[in-house]
Amino acid sequence: xxxxxxxxxxxxxxxxxxxxxxxxxxxxxxxxxxxxxxxxxxxxxxxxxxxxxxxxxxxxxxxxxxxxxxxxxxxxxxxxxxxxxxxxxxxxxxxxxxxxxxxxxxxxxxxxxxxxxxxxxxxxxxxxxxxxxxxxxxxxxxxxxxxxxxxxxxxxxxxxxxxxxxxxxxxxxxxxxxxxxxxxxxxxxxxxxxxxxxxxxxxxxxxxxxxxxxxxxxxxxxxxx
Length: 225
Fold this sequence. Notes:
Blueprint: E1 2-4, E2 9-10, E3 17-21, E4 25-30, E5 33-38, H1 45-53, E6 65-69, E7 74-80, H2 92-111, E8 114-115, E9 124-127, E10 129-132, E11 139-140, H3 146-169, H4 177-188, H5 194-201, H6 208-223
Antiparallel strand pairs: 1-2, 1-6, 3-4, 4-5, 5-7, 6-7, 8-11, 9-10
């Protein structure tokens, strides 16, 4: 039996629907919540409390309840359940709005002395909005100089946006990586702010999935070796 910080009682793992497991924990669905049982040690009790109390943003699906066993040991956390439906039918304007709002999340990390990690598209859930998940390996870089922390998080934000584009243009792990990154290097530029680029590149396209299909065909044709 387990109990959350607000008193929600979870009888057992067997009472929940298993969703996935990875290096850091086992994930289950419990009603309209997701329960993650930790085993890697990256998400400490102190860091989970920091996300719960100070790292609040509508696009951050971080801990909303802390989970304890009957010996009152911290064993995991709960987050809201959001079904991942991808970018299907998202308008280009909504996509740009969400991508811009994700930058606010990285600014929030910096303000709390948190360095982002795992900036991959598999740590994103899309359902009308673009949500970030799985912050277990994010680090509390207390002694890192402010400008270094800010620069690192800003770079990681750009990486996340590129990863969202790549995995939605070319689904599948490592699919068309070389071709996509050749396009980035030759036509976008590694120093280019992705918001500035997308605001121009999406002009005239009402739906983002149409844009992704057009770009996928273009990149495949031009950059496939």
